[in-house]
């Protein structure tokens, strides 16, 4: 019961946040001279006819609050207008086409980063100061210092290029859809996943190692050991649960960084997902796509945060009461 | 008795009576001493100083080689087939890019941008973060309720979204970069300062200050701030490489420094099309970025360890245990005494 | 410690009007409730912690008022209300005739020079990151009374006066022992020559041998500077040693108050009697001759105090009236005018309360 109330509260807060973001976006882009707005929406290659059409379709000469209301209703129906840069294609069709690409990158990357990061962190903590630990510490330090795009380019240079030169073409740039087979799909995804995951994994390795070491030093762990529980049980049943809570809360903060990483990875590997669309849109002044990206991204962040909060509430019952 | 007390007595015994006001060893002197003995930290400091010197002297190098940052050399700077020149040829230390520009000079100028952005954004973010964190932690109540939520929102905010929006509306530039990076850096510092302030606020010496009639500002900046500086310093040192990477990423995506002004980020962006035939185009700027970031990260770790002797104690205990097992005869009581002394040093 | 003379029972005291000029602090019906917030989005107040529930007291110039009670009786809260650190819920606090209740900081500032405080924890009450000279010099800086070399000189004089080496003013608190740190606290409190120093259990955290030193220092300072003390403690022997008058608090209310001799020799409130009986006696014969009054029941919580007399659930003399009607704080038969007790059935001279307590507990005498 407490959990459902907690969930409902978080969802309500999330909706409020989304509303604020949408409103801010609207006023940032639309609260100017209608001619300027029309021109920016129509894209760089706009002719007078297109500008007139945009003004008419979106009712840009109407009072601002009327426009705002129409904007909100359109957004709720996923109608983001037309992208003039891409040739008057509805923006939501672009989104629908490119979403699977971004989703592939994100899901694989996140899974990889969490699994590697936390398991290496736990192992390092349990074998503190061993060879494994020292090696992983060095790796962590290198990982944290490595900007995502640099890693991506280095991987391309030192792995993709030599492999391809020697005829081993499984590892590829660009994107091959899942429908064309798991093999080819993974081939295009493996380097992006590693790139996306490495920096974050390093951070999480260090974090989980640190929190687990702290937890293992607590008195109640000493009691568990004194009771005669095996080390394995002590660590995995008791310590890890407590150690994971800071990791989970960090996850909530990192969702924002994740988006940045996705955009970078897509750009480096030419995946053509939503991130790359956004960057292209900036280059070309394609405002409707950017607006769609901003709102989509915010929705993702809000939803992800709610999920993270639920995970945190499962791990730490105290949170549910507040 | 603290360690300084022991040391003082030891030296007093050696040198006879000591007269005059006795100066206690401050936290800073002790920290500096520990830092000096940390080899990794010292190495990092040296690397950073070298990079800084090179960056400052970039115009000097440009004048010496007669290669400007944006100067193209289509004749001497390109290979026979019109591609970038490999390192070492024709006086181009790092080779050239596709336009025949001197990569070495460009990397040096990129260092100027990176260091400038890193240091300036961190400085501004620290001032803002500490002030806001102190105010919200100290005053509590509705001020804290509002500001804490704001801090959390900023922390979780996807930077891409903001950078994109600003770039679209105002056009990408150095100013946008500094604004975006500062905006995201202050929140992390603020959150830590707020947490510390909340716990320090309950301490009795703060109550004592209030009972003396100290104003809230005096309490915040004279009484609380000195107790906060340690974590702030660590965070600030670690914020610098984060800011440098941030700037490089923004420039890489085209949302930051625009060519022909050289930034490691935009050099690496251009390198994407040429690295298959010109590995140096990718490797040298990447190495510069990595070395700088690594150096600052190591320094930050070193500062953290130097400020907090407790982590030292955990590993010192391991050393003592090993020594004992090797049979040098230290006992458990020695361990306890040593750790108590280490503790009292913190006050 | 002072020229105050304990009067004979029945003899009237020097009249109030003559003594009125001697009143430094007058507290009338002070109430301090802390709200307990329930859960939920709004955080409504579900209960109140009644830390101080109607206390009146008087501190006279140059004298020491001892404030005794067990943990949770509200004495620290009371002290902080008087010092202006916590806002009072209701009631008045007057200093030399001026109403200082809940004054805003700026208006309170001049009174801060007259009312100072010494804290219990020698390790927590000094800022570990500041030098001792700076800490002691704080009052001068805050009130702008001395700067630069003059301030340094004043600080060093203070250090010497409390028994510290003035050449240590650049040291950090970590380099001093507990007793020395309390002396630093005393020096800080003394800086502006206040008229009242509130001592919140100043020796509780010190070793017994050091306690005597610090208490003697406080006594000397009182003689030299004409200080008044509000001395809070839970140790009755310490309070007896230092105080001129005593107040015994229980669960936010005054149980008994008066000059120390009548209260200590003829306690009227069963709680006071029980406390006194439990105090360790140095003489083994006296200790053996003591009849320990052992109370039953748990200490009730200040959120839900018992009805009527707050002590009645634990009182060996409790009767029906005690559970329904709150006893007034008044003079009992045979006591001097200033010895007040809040009890319906006060302890009579010669009454053996230990036996009564045992009977209540159902044991044989």
In one word, what is the shape of chain C?
Answer: globular
Helix content of chain B: over 70%
What is the H level of CATH, i.e. the homologous superfamily of the largest domain in chain C?
P-loop containing nucleotide triphosphate hydrolases
What is the class of the largest domain in chain C in the CATH system?
Alpha Beta
Question: CATH architecture of chain B, please?
Answer: Orthogonal Bundle
Overall body shape of chain B:
elongated
Short description:
Chain B is built from 14 helices and no strands. Helices cover 74% and strands 0% of the residues of chain B. Chain B has helices at 3-15, 27-36, 39-56, 58-65, 103-139, 141-156, 159-170, 174-201, 204-212, 216-253, 264-271, 279-307, 309-325, 332-344.
List keywords for this structure.
heterotrimer, A: 322 residues, B: 347 residues, mainly alpha, 14 helices, disordered C terminus
Task: Walk me through this protein's architecture.
The complex is a heterotrimer of chains A (322), B (347) and C (365). With 322 residues, chain A is mainly α. Helices cover 80% and strands 1% of the residues of chain A. Chain A has a two-stranded antiparallel sheet. In chain A, helix 1 runs antiparallel to helix 12, helix 5 packs antiparallel against helix 10 and helix 7 packs across helix 8. Chain B has 347 residues and is an all-alpha fold. Chain B has a single domain, classed as MetI-like fold (Orthogonal Bundle). The radius of gyration of chain B is 26 Å and the shape is elongated. The N terminus and C terminus of chain B are likely disordered. Chain C has 2 domains: 274 residues, 3-Layer(aba) Sandwich (Rossmann fold); 62 residues, no CATH class. In chain C, a hairpin with a 2-residue loop joins strand 4 and strand 5. By secondary structure, chain C is α/β, with parallel strands linked by helices. The interface between B and C is medium-sized, with 31 and 37 residues.
């Amino acid at each position: 019961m407490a959990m459902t109330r907690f969930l409902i509260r978080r969802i309500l807060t999330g909706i409020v946040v989304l509303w604020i973001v949408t409103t801010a976006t609207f006023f940032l882009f639309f609260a100017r001279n209608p001619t300027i707005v029309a021109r920016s929406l129509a894209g760089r290659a706009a002719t007078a006819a297109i500008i007139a059409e945009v003004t008419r379709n979106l009712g840009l000469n109407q009072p601002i609050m009327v426009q705002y209301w129409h904007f909100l209703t359109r957004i709720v129906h996923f109608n983001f207008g037309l992208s003039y840069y891409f040739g008057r294609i509805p923006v939501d069709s672009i989104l629908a086409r490119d979403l699977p690409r971004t989703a592939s990158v994100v899901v694989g990357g996140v899974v990889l980063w969490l699994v590697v990061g936390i398991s290496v962190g736990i192992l390092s903590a349990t074998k503190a100061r061993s060879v494994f630990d020292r090696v992983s510490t060095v790796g962590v330090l290198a990982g944290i210092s490595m900007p995502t795009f640099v890693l991506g380019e280095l991987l391309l240079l030192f792995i993709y290029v030599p492999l391809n030169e020697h005829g081993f073409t499984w590892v590829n740039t660009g994107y091959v859809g899942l429908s064309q087979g798991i093999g080819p799909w993974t081939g295009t995804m493996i380097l992006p996943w590693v790139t996306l995951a490495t920096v974050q994994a390093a951070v999480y390795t260090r974090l989980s190692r640190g929190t687990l070491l702290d937890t293992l030093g607590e008195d109640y762990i000493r009691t568990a050991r004194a009771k005669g529980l095996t080390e394995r049980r002590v660590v995995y049943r008791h310590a890890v649960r407590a150690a994971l809570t800071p990791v989970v809360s960090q996850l909530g903060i990192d969702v924002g960084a994740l988006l940045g990483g996705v955009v970078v990875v897509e750009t480096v590997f030419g995946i053509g997902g939503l991130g790359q669309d956004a960057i292209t849109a900036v280059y070309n002044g394609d405002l409707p796509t950017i607006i769609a990206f901003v709102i989509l991204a915010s929705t993702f962040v809000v939803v992800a945060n709610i999920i993270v909060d639920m995970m945190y509430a499962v791990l730490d019952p105290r949170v549910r009461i507040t | 008795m603290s360690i300084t007390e022991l040391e003082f007595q030891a030296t007093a015994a050696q040198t006879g009576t000591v007269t005059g006001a006795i100066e206690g060893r401050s936290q800073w002197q002790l920290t500096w001493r520990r830092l000096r003995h940390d080899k990794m930290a010292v190495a990092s400091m040296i690397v950073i100083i070298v990079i800084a010197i090179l960056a400052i002297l970039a115009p000097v190098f440009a004048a010496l080689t007669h290669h400007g940052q944006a100067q193209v050399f289509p004749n001497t700077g390109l290979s026979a087939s019109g591609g970038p020149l490999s390192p070492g040829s024709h006086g181009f230390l790092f080779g050239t890019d596709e336009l025949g520009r001197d990569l070495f000079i460009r990397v040096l100028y990129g260092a100027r941008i990176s260091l400038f952005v890193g240091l300036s954004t961190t400085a501004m973010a620290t001032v803002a973060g500490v002030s806001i964190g102190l105010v919200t932690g100290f005053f509590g109540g509705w001020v804290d309720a509002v500001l804490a939520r704001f801090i959390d929102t900023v922390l979780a905010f996807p930077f891409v979204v903001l950078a994109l929006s600003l770039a679209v509306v105002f056009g990408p530039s150095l100013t946008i970069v500094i604004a975006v990076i500062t905006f995201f850096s202050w929140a992390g510092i603020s959150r830590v300062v707020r947490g510390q302030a909340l716990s320090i606020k309950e301490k009795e010496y703060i109550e004592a200050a209030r009972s003396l009639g100290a104003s809230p500002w005096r309490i915040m900046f004279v009484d609380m701030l000195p107790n906060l500086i340690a974590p702030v310093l660590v965070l600030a040192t670690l914020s610098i490489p984060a800011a440098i990477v941030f700037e490089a990423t923004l420039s890489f995506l085209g949302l930051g420094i625009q060519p022909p002004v050289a930034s490691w980020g935009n050099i690496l962006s251009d390198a994407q099309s040429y690295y298959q035939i010109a590995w140096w185009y990718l490797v040298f700027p990447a190495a510069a970025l990595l070395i700088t970031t690594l150096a600052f990260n190591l320094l930050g770790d070193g500062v953290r360890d130097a400020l907090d002797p407790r982590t030292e104690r955990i590993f010192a205990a391991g050393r003592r245990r090993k020594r004992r097992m090797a049979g040098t005869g230290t006992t458990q009581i020695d361990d306890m005494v040593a750790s108590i002394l280490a503790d009292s040093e913190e006050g | 410690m002072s020229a105050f003379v304990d009067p004979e029972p029945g003899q009237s005291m020097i009249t109030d009007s003559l003594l009125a000029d001697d009143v430094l602090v007058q507290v009338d019906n002070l109430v301090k409730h802390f709200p307990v917030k329930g859960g939920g989005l709004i955080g409504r107040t579900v209960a109140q912690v009644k830390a101080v529930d109607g206390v009146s007291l008087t501190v006279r110039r140059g004298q020491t008022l001892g404030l005794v009670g067990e943990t949770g009786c509200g004495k620290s809260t009371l002290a902080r209300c008087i010092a202006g650190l916590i806002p009072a819920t209701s009631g008045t606090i007057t200093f030399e005739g001026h109403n200082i209740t809940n004054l805003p900081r700026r208006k309170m500032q001049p009174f801060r020079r007259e009312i100072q405080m010494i804290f219990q924890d020698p390790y927590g009450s000094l800022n570990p990151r500041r030098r001792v000279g700076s800490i002691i010099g704080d009052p001068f800086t805050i009130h702008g009374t001395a700067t630069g070399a003059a301030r340094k000189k004043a600080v060093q004089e203070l250090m010497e006066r409390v028994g510290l080496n003035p050449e240590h003013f650049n040291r950090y608190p970590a380099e001093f022992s507990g007793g020395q740190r309390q002396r630093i606290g005393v020096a800080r409190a003394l800086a502006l020559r206040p008229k009242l120093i509130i001592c919140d259990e100043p020796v509780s955290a010190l070793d017994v041998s050091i306690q005597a030193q610090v208490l003697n220092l406080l006594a000397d300072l009182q003689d030299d500077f004409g200080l008044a003390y509000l001395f809070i403690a839970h140790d009755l022997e310490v309070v007896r040693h230092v105080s001129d008058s005593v107040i015994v608090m229980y669960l936010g209310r005054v149980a008994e108050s008066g000059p120390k001799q009548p209260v200590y020799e003829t306690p009227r409130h069963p709680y006071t009697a029980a406390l006194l009986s439990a105090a360790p006696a140095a003489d083994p014969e006296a200790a053996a001759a003591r009849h320990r009054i052992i109370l039953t029941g748990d200490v009730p919580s200040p959120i839900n105090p018992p009805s009527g007399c707050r002590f009645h659930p634990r009182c060996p003399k409790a009767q029906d009236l005690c559970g329904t009607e709150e006893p007034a704080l008044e003079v009992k038969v045979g006591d001097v005018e200033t010895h007040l007790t809040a009890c319906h059935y006060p302890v009579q001279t010669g009454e053996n309360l230990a036996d009564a307590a045992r009977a209540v507990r159902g044991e044989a005498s």
